[in-house]
Design brief:
alpha/beta, six-stranded mixed β-sheet, single chain, 13 helices
Length: about 300
């Protein structure tokens, strides 16, 4: 009888874990192994011991910076605790913040998700000191829910930066911190539903971004040329989500300041919901920083 009860308890526990895992997988997309609850629990045991940090030690703190947006409800204390070897530029986005000091960095408005803070940092500092490495990062440290899109087995942004090879960033100019292609780069044969020709034209009008079919020195698209090219943009712009990346100072300066001002102006003026405008920018950061359309 005791053995039967034990067996039933084990079956109940297994069933409960299975159902919980299925629910999590149904909510957290894409449904791939890195987001599997069992894999997450396994990685939580001894991960740091198996894979010690390979943090860069020859780049001084004044020459590398983490840029992140934050709301009053966000806990950003982990930046100082876990990344003491980096500068931190925290942009408060709440209109009437109860946390930000008078000298705190602020965005002109809370719009477009993280994109407003990222562009504002570049605009604010373009003619001041920009470190050789700039990492644009979300405000969350880790967590299965908030940071599911962080490739680190524990979904930990601090671990990601500890393992980031800064020399690689300098060589490449732009590095997406997410290597997993899903979501964002698994259906490259399909049109990108978030990016239309009209949107491309609006964002890059009067900037140095060329047509895909044009020479690098040719100015950005006109409405007529966009129409002539059909769906060339939406069919050819894909990248891994989710707007966390590292950029070299040299790559930032390949564009004139006015480009960043014009792109932010689109973000300020668009009637699109934050979810949509922010998602569109997710698919354009690699283009803004000089990479191939499918990255």
């Amino acid at each position: 009888m005791v053995h039967v009860l034990r067996l039933r308890v084990k079956l109940l526990v297994i069933s409960a874990l299975t159902v919980t895992n299925m629910i999590l997988l149904a909510i957290v997309k894409p449904k791939q192994d890195p987001y599997d609850l069992v894999s997450f629990i396994k990685a939580s045991v001894g991960w740091s011991a198996r894979y010690p940090p390979e943090e860069d030690t020859h780049t001084p703190a004044w020459d590398k910076i983490v840029v992140t947006p934050a709301r009053d409800v966000d806990d950003i204390s982990w930046l100082a605790e876990d990344l003491p070897g980096w500068q931190h530029a925290v942009y408060y986005v709440d209109r009437s913040s109860a946390v930000a000091r008078n000298d705190s960095l602020r965005t002109p408005i809370n719009k477009g998700n993280e994109a407003m803070a990222y562009l504002t940092y570049i605009i604010d500092h373009y003619h001041r000191h920009i470190p050789s490495i700039v990492v644009f990062l979300h405000s969350h440290r880790n967590g299965f829910w908030k940071a599911w899109h962080v490739d680190d087995p524990l979904h930990n942004n601090a671990n990601t930066l500890r393992h980031l090879q800064l020399d690689h960033v300098r060589r490449q100019g732009y590095v997406n911190l997410r290597c997993n292609w899903n979501p964002g780069c698994t259906e490259v044969w399909e049109p990108n539903p978030h990016l239309t020709n009209r949107t491309w034209d609006e964002i890059f009008a009067n900037t140095t971004t060329p047509f895909f079919e044009s020479s690098p020195g040719k100015p950005a698209a006109s409405s007529q040329m966009t129409a002539d090219h059909g769906d060339v943009f939406s069919r050819r712009v894909w990248t891994s989500c989710c707007a966390q990346f590292a950029v070299s100072r040299e790559q930032i300066y390949l564009r004139p300041l006015q480009d960043y001002v014009n792109i932010r102006q689109w973000l300020l003026e668009t009637d699109l919901e934050d979810f949509l405008s922010g998602r569109i920018m997710e698919y354009l950061w690699h283009v803004i920083f000089g990479q191939e359309a499918i990255q």
